[in-house]
Amino acid sequence: MATWSTMMLQDANSPLMEQLSFFHDHSMMILAIITVMVGYLMLTMFFNKLINRYLLEGQTIELIWTILPAVTLIFIALPSLRLLYLMDEISSPSLTIKSIGHQWYWSYEYSDFSNIEFDSYMKPTAELEEQEFRLLDVDNRIILPMNTQIRVLVTAADVLHSWAMPSLGIKIDATPGRINQGSFMMMRPGLMYGQCSEICGANHSFMPIVIESISMNHFINWLNSN
């Protein structure tokens, strides 16, 4: 079971990612119904002996197979558009961090506080501690409070990168000379792992992202210690 769990994405830790997961299940259910229905109709056509050599048209069935797919697309499009607009919404962030992509590591700045900035490199295999993940853990994690609306500003210093955190449902392109922004809120404490998802060069797969979600009291203590 532990082996299988490491092969899948982490559980959702933000309201947006939960909604994305629900939309995935909703779409897959519709696709499963369509697949079963079409397969059943094909089988009945192959094996029945009902023929009508004089059948030229069927207005009723043609109306049904035109309207039914249109209605099905509406049931997929409406929740999809809702999520699309929610993903771009920035609602009164309580904290802002800035992420800068380099070849091949990330730099972070806590814009609301002075002198809190650091680089985040992937940990070499020889330096990994027990329970840490190879190619996913970093030497400096992003420390953020849970149940807090957080805005992340993303840019790059050299080439195109992409700041992606699957468990938060966020993926932002890091473009040199441009600042893109996104917003998320974490619902529970824990560690979340992401990676650069833009092919940015030879070491593209070696610039992971790790966010550590903690309570607000622990976050304030962390700020004071820095």
TrEMBL record:
GO terms for cellular component: mitochondrial inner membrane. This is Cytochrome c oxidase subunit 2. Keywords: Copper, Electron transport, Magnesium, Membrane, Metal-binding, Mitochondrion, Mitochondrion inner membrane, Respiratory chain, Translocase, Transmembrane, Transmembrane helix, Transport. It comes from Notonecta montandoni. It is found in: Mitochondrion inner membrane. CDD domains: CcO_II_C (cd13912). Pfam families: COX2, COX2_TM. The lineage of its organism: Eukaryota, Metazoa, Ecdysozoa, Arthropoda, Hexapoda. Component of the cytochrome c oxidase, the last enzyme in the mitochondrial electron transport chain which drives oxidative phosphorylation. The respiratory chain contains 3 multisubunit complexes succinate dehydrogenase (complex II, CII), ubiquinol-cytochrome c oxidoreductase (cytochrome b-c1 complex, complex III, CIII) and cytochrome c oxidase (complex IV, CIV), that cooperate to transfer electrons derived from NADH and succinate to molecular oxygen, creating an electrochemical gradient over the inner membrane that drives transmembrane transport and the ATP synthase.
